[in-house]
Amino acid sequence: MTATATPPAADSPATTVATSAAELSRLLQQLGRTDLVDRVTAAGARLRRPATVVAVVGEFKQGKSSLVNGLLGQQLCPVDDDLATSAITLLRHGDQPAAIVRRRVDGEPAAERIDVADLASWVSESGNPGNERGVERVEIVAPSSILANGLVIVDTPGMGGLGAGHAAATLSFLPYADGLILASDASAELSAPEIDFLRRAAELCPTVLFAQTKIDLHPEWRRVVELNRGHLERAGVRIPTVAVSSNLRAAALARKDRALNEASNFPQLLAGLGERVIEPARAAALTRSTDDLRSVASLVASGLREQRAVADDPEALRSMIARIEAANARLEHLRGPGAKWALLVNDRIADLTTAAMHQLRSGLRDASREMDLEIETLKNGGEWDDLARRLQSSVADTVARVFALVEDRRRAIRAEAVELIQEEDLRLDGLGRRGAGFTVEDLWRERSIDESESGAKASFRTALTGARGAQGGVLMFGMMGNFLPGAVAAFMATNPVLLGAGALFGGFQLMEDRKRKVTVRRQNARTQVRQFVDDVQLEVGNEITNLVRDVHRELRDELTGRLAELQQTYTAAGQAAQAEAKQTQEESIATRGRLDEQLATLDRIVQTVDGIGGS
């Protein structure tokens, strides 16, 4: 018994389109259109393995890695009572198990192949405490039926409180993921940070699932599940909930026990993952692939029909050449910087940069103002830790929404540019989604907001301050004794009242010192907030600039590439027609037969993908 994921059936739409892609690729090779072969090959590969990214997240020791192993049906991620994941782990399909560690050595990126058995020393908190080895991520490839469908599972480090660093990083990543699974064990109800995280995640990610783990260890898990469903409902978070047991899943796989496997509820989780993530990815891949095949087949057919018209009527060659020259002139203009679509893209990209930077600065300004108000009531370091986590979460939300804005605007710009290109045979596929190359947690510099003294030194200074205050009180009352009768002075000198007075004045001095400490704490907190916000604005601003520039280049290169394909089609048709005009009668008959056969193949491919698109 292994983790299962339904492969495309032999007569499924995906298989039919893949067959058509292979047939079209062979025809393009015959026609010498190698410029289109890669596009068709990619369309077929996309059907076999559509790229689908699912992140598994949760607080420390909630059973994330065990959940991932249960999904895969094999023990790949290190799991133990004293292990906690400290580095991001990506799992994808491969014929043989292998692992690659990607990290920075002396500031330079490095990749190191390791044995899968040594993963714990790289991705666990015990083997790599605080990620001291600088691991950026570990990539694992393994044979797995669920991964063979193109699924990439991301096992993330544990998130303390779900409000600090790793949660911030995850939220920034979510606009580029296809799905997310939050793991939380059945020992207790969802915490407020977990519910808030799910609410924000549902806004940023197409599909979010909640997995209640370790149900075999907690007899009251059903009550906890119902309570959690109520919490999520009241918070307006409507996502599927599945209660699972990784231990039962592992035992079921080891014993090949179907009933035990059903009791683990993993089949239910896999079904939800397939229905809500994998199948939509397949459908999207199918749509993109059919669009590509239809576009390429129609484009090539238009050129062959021009050749066929000349084969029937050699006198039509002159008018055909004139049409091709006019079309090429128009295409040459469309490929130039002065074309309307190019100007539109330039303008929209400039608008996008302005909008993204404004949203970033506005969000950071609001977060900074909110922190200023909170800091006014700050009294101790414990309160500051909570404020720091809230600040990071707020900034992560801002960053995630900025990158989501870039992705949404990119699609809109592309659609608007395509509308301006009036070539009826030009159909453009989508660009891949992009992720940010940094995490906001890396910009947070953890420091105490108390004055920079060691614990012993600070305690000594506090005691010294109190002693000095007490000494001042004693001296004052001692001086008063000089003006009182001797008996009264003696009484005061030997009475506990004098010592109490000294303590009272010492207390006043300590109160003043505490006030000074609180003032210093608040000032240090404001300094840290300003530095953090400035760092985020600098680094994220630079990332946005680079991202928008890459989007601009990709849009420009994609559209000009499609125009170049069309221009080559017209040029090839004209050259072939001129060559056909010089053929003998026998050669012309053979050419017409070949063209008819090729056109029939292309028409059949178009009809096939049209039928699938309409089903």
Question: In which range does the helix fraction lie?
Answer: 55-70%
Low-confidence stretches: 423-446, 452-506
Total of helices: 17
Query: Which H/E pattern describes the elements?
Result: HHEHEEEHEEHEHEHEHHHHHHHHHH
Major beta sheet, specifics?
9 strands, mixed
Placed side by side, the strands forming the largest sheet appear as 4-3-5-2-6-1-7-8-9
Q: Overall mean pLDDT score?
A: 76
| Structural class determined from secondary elements | alpha/beta
Q: Count of DSSP E strands?
A: 9
Q: What is the CA-atom radius of gyration, in angstroms?
A: 34 Å
3D architecture notes:
This protein is α/β, with parallel strands linked by helices. 64% of the residues lie in helices and 9% in strands. It contains 17 helices and nine strands. Strands 4-3-5-2-6-1-7-8-9 form a nine-stranded mixed sheet, with helices on both faces. The protein is globular, with a radius of gyration of 34 Å. The two termini are 34 Å apart. About 13% of the residues have low confidence.
Summarize the structure.
The chain has 615 residues and is an alpha/beta fold. Helix content is 64%, strand content 9%.
SSE arrangement:
Blueprint: H1 13-31, H2 34-48, E1 52-57, H3 64-72, E2 89-93, E3 98-105, E4 108-114, H4 120-123, E5 135-142, E6 151-155, H5 165-173, E7 179-185, H6 192-204, E8 208-213, H7 221-234, E9 241-243, H8 246-255, H9 258-264, H10 266-312, H11 317-334, H12 340-375, H13 381-420, H14 455-481, H15 486-494, H16 496-580, H17 585-613
Helix pairs in contact: 1-2, 1-10, 1-17, 2-10, 3-8, 5-13, 8-9, 10-16, 10-17, 11-16, 12-13, 12-16, 13-16, 14-15, 14-16
